[in-house]
Every structure is written in structure tokens, then in C-alpha cells.
Specification:
This protein is an alpha+beta fold and 341 residues long. It has 5 helices and 14 strands. The protein has a domain of 213 residues: Trypsin-like serine proteases (Thrombin, subunit H), CATH 2.40.10.10.
Length: 341
């Protein structure tokens, strides 16, 4: 019954009828007078428990003898909220008839990125098609595990310029071991037009290897010579670009797992977050991770598909960790290691 005490009933005594009747009348009058002397709030306090918090989940059931109270106005954060009336007034010419239909909440206009990444962007999809055979596309290849055959490639990589001539760029999440991994630049339809190169070492940052930091989802790979030749000597390479504009227009390459030739899309990239690039290019599914983002103005490679959502949860949006001093340091370490080997 709440936190307050219940009133106890006085013990009845047996008296003479006349005296009993007179005393009864006096008692009733005193009770009535006492009850009418209570204020509405005191009457409520005498019959209802005191609320200790406006966040109470449910009010106590009112007593049959409690004085009626005016319900409190419902809590609302809307500046248009009105207190609930204690009774429904009869509509008049000056009183608008209340409606039972709630004011509809405006539906926000959906954007293409509403469920993909924080923030709102203007989406302009590029056009994806098979990459033509050019000197630039020949620097891009597929990574294979085992024999070079249809269906065996699992990620994309590209040759990055170095003094040692044997370094590749890809996404760090693509591989953790070099066992049986080979790089095939310019791979098309089951053929290796420029040869194959064995991957011999993987270089990633400490934050990636220990924490899986998506802002450092990039890797530099070392390759062994093939037929006495270094990979850069055969197909050329792209320079590593750092601290370049988020809004750069790039050529995006990648080998879809269900395709035997590389895809190409050219579009402006954008800023997804402080250390993530984003680009809207359709049909970049699994297998395209590690594909290079080549700046059309400078020719530098400024990204690799990966990072946020390991490159993207949908085929039409791709991400890359931003290239700054962190990848520049990793590149220098990989180049030094390759020189020493």
C-alpha cells in the first residue's frame, strides 16, 4: 500500500444506547469536518504514496476514498506538447475540436550512404568496365594461392616504385602468410602475360598486426625475382603518394573473385573520416581488396581498397585507409628490408 501507514480503526466499546447514539453523531460530524479541512494535496498524500522520482514506471492504484487529483502533464520534449485536460471540454465556436490523428513525423529523404557510413554525402556513381590493357593496368595484378588458374585468385595488388624494384602494395587484411602466394601482373583469362612472382615477405604496421586498426589496413609485399628479373623491371610501377587530397579523381582497379580480368572505374574520391577515403564505383565485390587508387592528376597511388568494412560492405562503395606518414614509414622499412635481403 505504499510508504505511508494505514489508519487503525478505533476499538469499539459497549455503552448505553442513548449515550452511544449521541457520541456516534458527534464522532461522524468530527470526521466529516476533519476530512473537509484537508487540502487537496494533503488528501492525496493521505491516500496515495509519495512519488520519489518523476521517472516512476507506473502510478499506484488510487484509493476508493481518496480525493481526486488533476493528472500531471505528460513528459514531452516537444515544444508543441500540451497538458492532458482533466476532462474533455464541449467544443464551441472558439474551441477547436481536438483530433485523434497524431501529427505525422516527416520522413527524411534517404541518401545512398545512410546505412553505409556515418555522415551524408552526395553520391555520383562512376562507371565500371573491364580495364583495357595499358602500361598502367599491367602494373596491377591478382594474388593467387596455388596454381595460376581460374578461380584461384583472392585479392588484388600493384607494383609500387622502389629502389629495390620488387615491392607490391595491397591491403593488410588480404594475407597473413606468404606460403604459395604468387603475384600475376596483367592477369587475364587464365594467362600470365608478364610472368609470375613469388611473394616472400609481408610488411604491415604494428597497430594493424596487434590491433587490426582499419586506418592502417595496407601492406607492402616483397617478391623474389622471376627468371632473373625484378617485377618492376618488367611491368613498371606506380609511385606512392601521401598526404594527397581526399577529393582527388582516381582510377580504381580490382580483380573481382568471379571475373578473370581486372575492372576499372574512374571517379572522384571523398572523405569518409579523418583516415578513410571513400569512392562510389559499382561492381567491386570480393577479390578487389588491395586494388590501387591511382590519382589521375599525379599518377601516384594514393589508396588501396580496404580499411573501413575491409573495403566496403556493398559492391558499389569502396574504402581505403588514408595514405600519410604512417604508410610512408612502412614503405621505407620494407624498402630497407628488401635491400638487406
Amino acid at each position: 500500500m505504499g510508504q505511508h501507514s494505514r489508519r487503525t480503526t478505533p476499538r469499539r466499546r459497549f455503552l448505553a444506547p442513548t449515550l452511544f447514539t449521541a457520541l456516534s453523531a458527534l464522532t461522524v460530524a468530527a470526521v466529516v469536518t476533519g476530512m473537509h479541512s484537508l487540502s487537496p494535496s494533503e488528501a492525496t498524500a493521505a491516500s496515495s504514496p509519495t512519488r520519489t522520482s518523476p521517472a516512476a514506471t507506473a502510478p499506484a492504484s488510487p484509493s476508493a476514498t481518496a480525493a481526486p487529483t488533476t493528472p500531471a502533464a505528460p513528459a514531452s520534449t516537444s515544444p508543441l506538447a500540451e497538458p492532458t485536460p482533466s476532462s474533455t471540454p464541449t467544443p464551441t465556436a472558439d474551441t477547436p475540436t481536438p483530433t485523434l490523428t497524431p501529427t505525422p513525423t516527416p520522413t527524411p529523404t534517404p541518401t545512398a550512404t545512410a546505412t553505409k557510413a556515418p555522415g551524408t554525402r552526395t553520391v555520383n556513381l562512376g562507371t565500371t568496365a573491364a580495364a583495357p590493357a595499358t602500361s598502367e593496368s599491367s602494373t596491377v595484378g591478382a594474388l593467387f594461392s596455388g596454381s595460376v588458374a581460374a578461380g584461384n585468385h583472392f585479392c588484388t595488388a600493384s607494383v609500387v616504385h622502389s629502389a629495390t624494384g620488387n615491392l607490391l602494395l595491397t591491403a593488410a587484411h588480404c594475407l597473413t602468410s606468404t606460403d604459395g602466394v604468387v603475384f600475376v601482373p596483367g592477369y587475364r583469362n587464365g594467362t600470365a602475360p608478364y610472368g609470375t612472382w613469388q611473394v616472400t615477405a609481408i610488411h604491415t604496421t604494428t597497430d594493424w598486426s596487434q590491433k587490426g586498426d582499419v586506418d592502417e589496413d595496407f601492406a607492402i609485399l616483397e617478391t623474389a625475382p622471376s627468371n632473373g628479373r625484378k617485377v618492376e623491371d618488367v611491368v613498371g610501377a606506380n609511385r606512392l603518394g601521401t598526404d594527397e587530397s581526399f577529393g582527388a579523381t582516381v582510377r580504381l582497379y580490382g580483380y573481382p573473385a568471379d571475373s578473370e580480368s581486372p575492372s576499372l572505374c574512374t571517379n572522384a574520391s571523398d572523405k569518409q573520416s579523418t583516415y578513410q577515403r571513400v569512392i562510389d564505383c559499382p561492381s567491386y565485390p570480393a577479390g578487389t581488396s588491395g586494388g590501387p587508387w591511382i590519382d589521375t592528376a599525379t599518377g601516384d597511388v594514393v589508396g588501396a581498397i580496404g580499411g573501413y568494412q575491409q573495403g566496403g560492405d556493398t559492391d558499389d562503395v569502396s574504402y581505403s585507409a588514408y595514405f600519410d606518414h604512417t604508410i610512408a614509414t612502412l614503405y621505407s622499412q620494407a624498402e630497407a628490408a628488401a635491400s638487406a635481403s
